[in-house]
Amino acid sequence: MDRKIIVAGGGAAGMCAAIYAARNGASVTIIEKNSQLGKKLSMTGNGRCNISNLNMNEKMYNPAAEKRMKQWLSVYGVLDVISFFKSLGIVIKSEDGYLYPISGQAQTVVSAFENEIKRLGISVIYGEQLKAVDVIQESENKRYRVLTNNNTYEADRVIIATGSLSGPKTTMSTGDGYYICKKLGLTIKDTYPALVGFKAAAGEIMPDGGVRSLAEISFFLGNEVVAKEYGELQITKDGISGIPVMQASSKVVRLLNEKKPVTVSINFFPDYDEDDYISLEKEMLRLRDDRSLSDFLTGFHNGYITDMIIRKMKMGRSMKMKNISESMVLSILDSYRYYKIKLDSDYGYLQSQVTSGGVSLGDVRDDLTTNNHDGIFVVGELLDVDGRCGGYNLQWAFTSGSIAGTVASL
Ligand SMILES: Cc1cc2nc3c(=O)[nH]c(=O)nc-3n(C[C@H](O)[C@H](O)[C@H](O)COP(=O)(O)OP(=O)(O)OC[C@H]3O[C@@H](n4cnc5c(N)ncnc54)[C@H](O)[C@@H]3O)c2cc1C
């Protein structure tokens, strides 16, 4: 008899689990509360879908998950994702190790998943929301009752893949899985937005327009550097975001939640070492004449950054350079390397890419079944696993989905 498996949630992890289970001969149904599969997947990687990364190891994940990730990645790692995608007919390319579909379109990934789901005869129920999972029979062959807002179903195995709290509203990321798993007796670790930007504190001087600039950013708690990252910073009237900010975010979000004062120091000349910058300053000093401060700095860096620095230093834009002391000029130029902004809070779940926290890894076995139920699996972001930016979160969705789908079908 075919094993009957219900997968709740048709995102990256759920679709992957369903495909692996159906390829092994199981009879699979996906219950998806949205009107389409893979809504979030279609938005990933700025619409390009960064599916994984050749630079893959457990250190790319939250400290609580590292040890388990080492084991899980050894079972299903980046090469397995590549062959899985090949089996779906998706051609992959690497950009410095970051893996994308060659189409450059996340939607083609979703469509290829959907084609395979159709080909395998997996049923998909749209617009129904999983509410609870109950055990029907306390015998050796346990069966499970799956309750949605509309119906009740029975299954031999249930895979809960309902995702997290992160992402725009259309992704339906409302964290349903947390209370469903809590009812099943699982521990839920406190959740926080991760891979997210930050609002600047009131009164901070910010640029008048949006700027993207390569930068090195250091997050300070008092004098202690709590995180340091390099990459393309996005800075707006309101706050900071971009990959280097997101990479540091899981640590910083927690500190801000604890009402700790975090300041970021931005170096807009990250590729200049101390000596290079000193010679640049010397060259600039030689240009001091009767030109105005704003003319003097026109070509120095992005106009919005310069304007922000002039305002922060409370200088007049039309001041003649010859009337500004050498030490003042040096402190203006130094501000491009040490621009400080006090942070207020994170931008919240709606603007975050992942959620840190979730179902405790202490409550799941290596095969992703829960400690108290052999037939219930928890996968994807619902678990307390969050990775850095760069394909690590989708890798986890595929790793956990493939393991659970395979084991559930055995
Ligand atoms: C804007 C954005 C860009 C991202 N870019 C990348 C990237 O390039 N690379 C990367 O590695 N990661 C990226 N991520 C993170 C990645 O998308 C997620 O980690 C991954 O999608 C998680 O997969 P999941 O299947 O666990 O959850 P999801 O993909 O969120 O899927 C969960 C599914 O469950 C459904 N659902 C929820 N509740 C219920 C319920 N009660 N009943 C039935 N169905 C339910 C949802 O509708 C959804 O379809 C990005 C995230 C965002 C928001």
From TrEMBL:
Signal peptide range in chain numbering: none
InterPro entries: BaiN-like, BaiN-like_dom_sf, FAD/NAD-bd_sf, RsdA/BaiN/AoA(So)-like_dom, RsdA/BaiN/AoA(So)_Rossmann
Keywords, ordered alphabetically: FAD, Flavoprotein
Domain of life of the organism encoding this protein: Bacteria
Record keyword Flavoprotein present: yes
Domain named RsdA/BaiN/AoA(So)-like Rossmann fold-like: residues: 4-406
Cofactor: FAD
Domain RsdA/BaiN/AoA(So)-like insert: 192-354
Protein name per its UniProtKB record: Flavoprotein HI0933 family
Organism of derivation: Butyrivibrio proteoclasticus
